[in-house]
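cron nightly-structures :: item 1 of 1
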Amino acid sequence: MAATESPTESFDVLVIGAGPTGMACAIEAQRAGFRSVLIDKGCLCNSLFHYPSHMTFFTTSELLEIGDIPFPSINAKPSRNEALEYYRKVAMFYSLDIRQYQRVEQVSGSDLNFTIRTTDTFGRTNTYATRKVVVATGYYDLPNLMNIPGEDLPKVHHYYNDPHPFYGLDVVVIGGKNSAAIAALELWRHGARVTVVYRGSAMQPHIKYWILPDIENRIKNGQIAAYFNTAVTRIDPDSVTIQTAPGGATRVIKNDTVFAMTGYRPDLDFLQSLGVRIEGEDRCPACDPSTLESNVPGIYLAGVIVAGDRTSEIFIENGRFHGHQIAGDLRVKLTSSAAEPLRV
């Protein structure tokens, strides 16, 4: 590495990803006495910030708590805005060192002697030395693409935030799970003409229990149009083309905007660039289930990426405990290594 890229700061533990799970890992490492830093290409809790602005969690506030800090909420199920406020308060309470808007470009070196190179939004390079690395990058950054003509048009969105800009427009929502149902209902209630297109035979039964009857009734009453056992095969500036089950009839419908709520996937390419093996049909990264250390010594995995493509298995509710597992292993391996830990 060139001399101009020599690490400017050194840490015991560097966490890639400053979401709730990454924060929990940094908190537990800090409690164990190790100097920690979090790096995120976006803001604190970047994925959560990009959830729909009026979203309500399926779970209770107690199950979103990290660092033994209570999460008070006036609602039975907290909102996205309440969660953002809570995690900001936790970050302040623990004085977490969070480097926002820095993308990790390279991880080099080996156990106890890693070098992390990042670039910020202005293209400037930063380098950090760390003895251990925790990858807690989630899965919300990479949408599952349909790979159809027109998917790259500016009218196509893979994330839904707010319904207001789509008042009076013809909107197609692709998908039949929670995110699609929430988007369709909010868009319809704010004056959009909404059509749902889904390859399944009906909306998914595991949609949030207070959302499912709402979307089903809107469809039944004709307030939201719906095509099931159907796929979008082409997107054009003023229309979309849909086709019923493979080989079935096609139809062109008027359209201004498309929300492709087709799900998301973890960045397994990044893990492989670190040397982490991806194994099995579900493409799970190799790691010790008790310590969460990957097959690369010194690199730990936390949160939903542990489950590979099985993204529905790990949420904040259970991923938040990964920090305890990792910190337990750090206590053993860092304190028994030749160099003394950088105590905070």
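cron nightly-structures :: done
The two ends are 28 Å apart (CA to CA).
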